[in-house]
Specification:
- Helices cover 36% and strands 14% of the residues.
- By secondary structure, it is of the alpha/beta class.
- It has 2 domains: 31-104 and 388-496, Aspartate Aminotransferase, domain 1 (Alpha-Beta Complex), CATH 3.90.1150.10; 109-383, 3-Layer(aba) Sandwich (Aspartate Aminotransferase, domain 2), CATH 3.40.640.
- The strands form 3 sheets. It has a 7-stranded mixed β-sheet with strand order 4-10-9-8-7-5-6, sandwiched between helices. Strands 1-2-3-13 form a 4-stranded mixed β-sheet. Strands 11-12-15-14 form a 4-stranded antiparallel β-sheet, covered by helices on one side.
- The radius of gyration is 22 Å and the shape is globular.
- 4'-deoxy-4'-aminopyridoxal-5'-phosphate binds at residues 158-160, 163, 192-194, 267, 271, 300, 302-303, 328.
Amino acid sequence: MIGRDGGPASGAGSPTLTSPETDLAGVRMTSPNPTLDATSDHGAAADMPMGRGAAEHLWMHFTRMGGYATTPVPTIERGEGSSIWDTNGKRYLDALSGLFVVQAGHGRAELAEVMAEQARKLAFFPIWSYAHPTAIELADRLAAEAPGDLNKVFFSTGGAEAVETAWKVAKQYFKLTGKPGKHKVISRAIAYHGTTQGALSITGVPPFKTPFEPLVPGSHRVPNTNFYRAPQHVGHDEKEFGRWAADRIEEAILAEGPDSVAAVFVEPVQNAGGCFVPPPGYFERVREICDTYDVLLVSDEVICAYGRLGTLFGAQKYGYQPDIITSAKGLTSGYSPLGATLISDRVFEPFGSGSTVFPHGYTFGGHPVSCAVALANLDLFEREDLLGNVQRNENALRQTLEKLYDLPIVGDVRGDGFFYGIELVKDKATKERFTREESERILRGYISGALFEAGLYCRTDDRGDTVVQVAPMLTSDQAVFDEIEEKMRAVLSQAWTLV
Ligand code: PMP
């Protein structure tokens, strides 16, 4: 756990923000899966008949498999709207939209029908030198909706591939434009950008990286925008903090050498660490720095695009213009895998003439069924005004979660749109963190399992500080928010008795 062991109790000089990545080696591997942690003693799983079989042959992602040697795997078999059911018929509220994915809700028959129709018509064809209608139509639509001149769309099958694509575009772009030395990437501490080796290199969570080193060279970390743990000298004013955090990017570019830096990768709201929102003025300054040093600004919107913040793209929420947007997850509401990297006219320009090729692609990138369901999903967004629903209800979600501030364990409630993190602390006044042992015992040992047992599927995470995250479907209303708050209150109240 970052900065816990002997780390400052308050935000002063917080290692979360200021340490080089190697100092974060104390971060423990934790499942990015929500409340389900193989080490959790979650009784909910005990009587799940299908779970045992799953553990024998299915290697779950980011999971302590040893914990499932004798414990059945919680197995979800059905979803409808915001609800999911396990194989025993028990209902849970899906307060994480699967994994920040299921924007329109589970069980949308119309999306399933569109997929079946497309599969009957043309199940597969590649977009390698050829095209098919749904890929063309979806690319047109994304280009029209994206901010500014992000007019070229490169499809992949998920987020990490979208990130790989962006970094490779950036590297080749500079080779084509006479700056071949520019290949490095600046990204932020604790940020997660995917697990393929390029995306992992950009990722700022050391325990996810060390087993696979050496990774792709040339990535460098700067502080994120965790205002709750801002260094003391800028901790009193969000704007000042934002300026300070953005200036660290300039500092890194200068330290690495502007002639060697190709891109800055940032999420609109950083997920890992628990929903760090950008301080006012932050992106304005980041854009300015990128322009000064001819560095591409990549907005990694794998989570924040497609309505999560109440706008189609995250950059639109904060009014900045990226050179590249990476996206995936919510584009299809999870009905089929799809990633999309959106590239500006300026960056595409040197690729668009003569015999130049971007030698990169994925067999299943822009899959016809995925593109068809993405189009239907975007239609549904419009028909049901899902962005409007987020805009109308985001304050209600915030206010409902802020009720939890009356619990002694709740230190910070932060986020935007339908994307929130709740940081748990040992001492509210001093912001003291839980020790590693306490986090193991309380977060993994109790809270994870207890939330699920209580019928709330969300995420507990200690890649950075100890947080619980929620990201309800874009269809959600006060009834959903109340259910989240009520279940979380019960579990967090009980957790405090274990501190
Ligand atoms: N970037 C960000 C910001 C993400 O949140 C994620 C996944 N959570 C990824 C990239 C990687 O996406 P995927 O798991 O689809 O490869």
